[in-house]
Amino acid sequence: xxxxxxxxxxxxxxxxxxxxxxxxxxxxxxxxxxxxxxxxxxxxxxxxxxxxxxxxxxxxxxxxxxxxxxxxxxxxxxxxxxxxxxxxxxxxxxxxxxxxxxxxxxxxxxxxxxxxxxxxxxxxxxxxxxxxxxxxxxxxxxxxxxxxxxxxxxxxxxxxxxxxxxxxxxxxxxxxxxxxxxxxxxxxxxxxxxxxxxxxxxxxxxxxxxxxxxxxxxxxxxxxxxxxxxxxxxxxxxxxxxxxxxxxxxxxxxxxxxxxxxxxxxxxxxxxxxxxxxxxxxxxxxxxxxxxxxxxxxxxxxxxxxxxxxxxxxxxxxxxxxxxxxxxxxxxxxxxxxxxxxxxxxxxxxxxxxxxxxxxxxxxxxxxxxxxxxxxxxxxxxxxxxxxxxxxxxxxxxxxxxxxxxxxxxxxxxxxxxxxxxxxxxxxxxx
Length: 431
Ligand code: UD1
Fold this sequence. Notes:
This protein is α/β, with parallel strands linked by helices. It is built from 15 helices and 24 strands. A 4-stranded mixed sheet has the order 22-23-1-24, with helices on both faces. A hairpin with a 2-residue loop joins β4 and β5. α5 packs parallel to α6 (164-174), α8 runs parallel beside α12 and α10 packs parallel to α12 (371-383). The longest helix is centred in the middle third of the chain and has 13 residues, at 233-245. The structure holds uridine-diphosphate-N-acetylglucosamine. The site of uridine-diphosphate-N-acetylglucosamine (UD1) has 22 residues, from α1, α5 and α6.
């Protein structure tokens, strides 16, 4: 089993290049099967989640070819099967995008109920409510979701909660429905906009993505295209918080600074210097004590729930008391117990974490409870005095490409090991 072994205490410094957005890629790769022509997608992060989704796509008969590490060609003309195997779906939540994509293309799909990170109950009622409004009927039987429609007809759909997944799924199904669809109370995340732009590049007619009303006019078919995925807001944010947490100086390159504004704003409140370039953001936190602040997670453009653990590990080193409120997922503080082993003082009550800043962390052996919390614990370990070992890093590999390589290039002492001997060798080498 792979682990990260880390010797902390060195401020991270330098430039790091950010890859394509995982959550946009998952929507776009699924949507690509809706065309019968070849689609080329660039800037696909080569992470576990995208690889697993591509396997599921191949399994139902589409042709998938990696042109290089981050470029994928997909041809959906050969799809024969509308059933997505449970083995794949249980590994990644976003396989549910195949429900919307296959419903739009084939008017039928069967997908096992999604898995993914265990960060809350994560229902899919809004996805199903939307499919029903388009004329599909659905049924859940032995863990499989079945959706089927004789005709898909555009409709007016109001989401009861702001949901990224249902917004993307409904854009996919509705773009091949007859007539017009209006999605109200839609999610506005950058990756929702990216999936809409991609569908439009294939010939769909979607307007308003990025606002809370999305208007879609159905088309008969989608054609091939080439498309490059936007940079990953959360990977960029993780490195920005790594600068703050380790008192470092990191420039995240190849980013869209606008997507990072809620994170930059909090870093400024915490006393960091933030310098925005055209496609970069530099965070300087050298030689200073971070200041406490309060953070509440909200749908975009609010502070992202996927950055909540990274922010909390920085605030737990700030001077004074901070409050972090999680308003999207109810089970997202599981890392707090692990962080306590490094010396953090955090008390969780319901969806609120009360943080009393400490002067420093000390290295410890901890487990990654989920993807983003796992990444946050790695950053905490890089700030901590002494050695740490992080277990269950397969969660982190779901969403970060070459995380250890990028952190090493910033001066972090981190190595991926898969046996006790290599772990001890690292400790001896680093001393
Ligand atoms: C996506 C992201 C995830 C991110 C989240 C919020 C992907 C693959 N994952 O997850 O990284 O943390 O957005 O930005 O893109 N809800 C319902 N009913 C539904 C759907 C959602 O009640 O049918 C609720 C959820 O329980 C949650 C909230 O709506 O409280 C937001 O969930 P949603 O935006 O759908 O998250 P995901 O798409 O699962």
